[in-house]
Amino acid sequence: MDGTNGTEEQRPRLSRRGFIGVSAVGLGLGMTGTGWGPWPGAAVGAARAADEQGGLRFVVLTDTHGNDEETARLANLALVFAAVEAENPEFVLHCGDITDYGDDSGFAAYRSCISDGLWDRIRHVPGNHEIRWDVTARERFEQWFGPTSYSFDAGGVHFVALDPTQALQEPGLFGDDLDAIRRDLDAAGETPSVMFLHFPLAGRNHYVNDADELLRTIEPFPVRGIFAGHIHRNEIDRFNGLTQVAAVATRSGPFYLRCTERNDEAGRVLVVEQVTLGATLADAPVVDLLTEIPLDAGPGELAGPVHAGGRATGPRIDLSATAGPAAVGLEAQVYPQELFGTAVDRAWRPLERAGGSWHGALDASALATGVHRVRLRATDESGAFWHETVTVERHGSARTKLRWDDPIGGQIQGALAASGNTVVAASTSGRVVALRVSGAARHERMWVTDLGAVHRGAAFASDGSTVFVPSADHTITALEAETGRSRWTADLGRPVMSTPAVFNVGGVDRIVVTAGDRLFCLTTSGTTVWEAEVPRLSAGRAASDGERVYVGAGDGHGYAYDLATGNRLWSILTNTRTDSYRQLIYGPWDDWIEILPTGAVLFSTVANAIAVDPVTGSELWRRDGSYLYAPSLILEDGSVLLTTEWGVVDLVDPTTGVAHWSTQAVPRAVNAGPVRDERTGTVWLVSVGGLVVAIDPASGAVTVDRQLFTSNTFSTPVIVDRQLVVAAQDGVVRGVAI
Which of 95, 68, 306 is nearest to 194 (CA)? Predict the structure, then answer.
């Protein structure tokens, strides 16, 4: 079909996040069979009369943050969508953060601001606010909006919706979707493409850890534009043959972007303007030109590609590179691996041109032994860039030595589980692998099996004979630890996005696990002993003292339940926030609850660690710090190691909450907590950016050991024999001799 009149061609495709190519007809009919109803976006092109010709005309907006408790914000959204409908665009692109925290009431409030005539012309992608607290593993989003990754053609342009968001996490990762994106662009051929997603890429933006891999993936194809949100402001970047527009948040006021096509002697161009509405639709809007996106050629295209190599020698990294014919300058910097989900400008080091190549050096004196990334950017006369990233190994002394790595695929996002010499890792691809680890260097695969996507860690039975694996496909599966054979599978009716906890009471194991807003107690044969409500969600891990079960919830409370019956005994509100969204994000929703040596129960949030009486729930002490994400560690003398998400480790008295010492151990620590080597007493910690450090628990002295990898890790490692076993989001398990 001819795409110049706003209709679409069908390109069926599928990836792990549901990446598909769709047509207007296919969406309107095909999705109905799923029970979802007409999928928003089904009427792309409907705003233009069948015989009307001319350029594209569409609207982009982002970060609406719909919330049924914020009436002023909803009034603003209603005003914006009424104005957008009056524009009569062919379609609307929404770049995510549709709501504050992705619940049905927020989606319903957002939907109430949009007329039926506009609703089915809006194309959505999720933001971190939809997915981070979405323990339904995207199911709720798909029920409201359809797939999270897809593509369509309109007006002779190929549009691609990207979804690098990660369940339960703040930053983004494309991961396995890169292959699907490559296939999609290859099928589009020479048609210019425009992508839209939540996180802006490249430059000063460090929101997606493998953004450099995306740029390599799209390099052979005519991708000309990217629309994004997240940063709540307008920001224009021109790099690698495309123009990226990060848009102002509609949450902040009556703003949206108007995009119209101009076709003249300069070729096809998308003109992007910001529209700022008045107090009412009767007031004249203010329209400001933001940028223009060329569709026939791209900025910075001839400054690349950049090909480079680096060698770390002593305190420096020597670089040699070539760039494209239009490059007038080439700069480099060490990739700031310690950054995590943020935007930061760092100084660039210019390289010197010598004939057809560029040369220079970077200071490496502050870098740990191990693997690092170096970023390069070639600049043309217009100021546009070509970005490239290379990997460099810095050699040096380290206490540890990498002995092996075992790629299992997908992203390993949950803690590793260990019993004896058996280590179990599971990934978002559904792959579950058991490894036998021994000595300082040996490992072998015991078995491999495939289940549904796993986002949290597995857990062993108290005797080590069985391993329990939670899955986003609504199940928890018991596998024989020695062979991997399935013993049973329990369907809990919703995605199981928490780490199971196993408690042995009177010689009998009980498995306690949360699934969405429900708390389950199971026998080792998979029978449900009891089921209870956990308001909103719980994504961490429960704890028990043999009489009660304790869990953190998404309504800001910590709860106690009777272990025998599941009856709720008491609750404590961990923060004084007055609205549901802030009670969630400032609450213990992702906490691994700890029973302290004193018998007190420790709940942690992004603001405090709070010790409470196990019988009454009354507060005993409170310590300021963002201790929510990294599990705590109880040492032999009963003191407790608490780790903040900012990498500060505190040795705390469990009776008073007073710190014996406090130290900055790593730049960031998220979900991966410290582990102790029983042979030496040394505590090991892996940062979210892959930096491994050793901590002396007596003094708090920190020794930086090595930069083990450049992917993010959210997995608490394990120590088996003389090895620290570590996993990361590149899907690789590594054995490090310690």
Answer: 95
Terminal alpha carbon distance of the chain: 62
Torsion over CA of 584, 207, 629 and 455, rounded to 10 degrees? 90
Q: Which two tokens stand for residue 531?
A: 């089921």
pLDDT in tens, 424-442: 999 999 999 999 999 999 9
Number of domains the chain contains: 3
Answer yes or no: are the C-beta atoms of 185 and 37 closer than 8 Å.
no
How many Å apart are CA 104 and CA 101, to the nearest integer? 9
CATH classification of the domain holding 207: 3.60.21.10
Confidence of residue 266 (pLDDT cuts 50, 70, 90): confident
pTM of the predicted model as reported, rounded to 2 decimal places: 0.93
With cut-offs at 50, 70 and 90, classify the pLDDT of residue 8.
very low
State both tokens at 296.
């026939």
**CATH number of the domain encompassing residue 611:** 2.130.10.10
Contact between 676 and 639 (Cβ < 8 Å): no
If you write DSSP's letter for every residue of 512-554 in order, what string do you get?
EEEETTEEEEE-TTS-EEEEEE-SS---SB-EE-SSEEEEE-T
Of the residues 335, 363, 394, which one is the last residue of a structural domain?
Answer: 394
Residues 6+ apart with CB under 8 A from 487: 466, 478, 479, 480, 526
Q: How far is CA 582 from CA 98, 360, 558, in A?
A: 16, 48, 15
The single residue listed with the structure tokens 């790593």 is 666
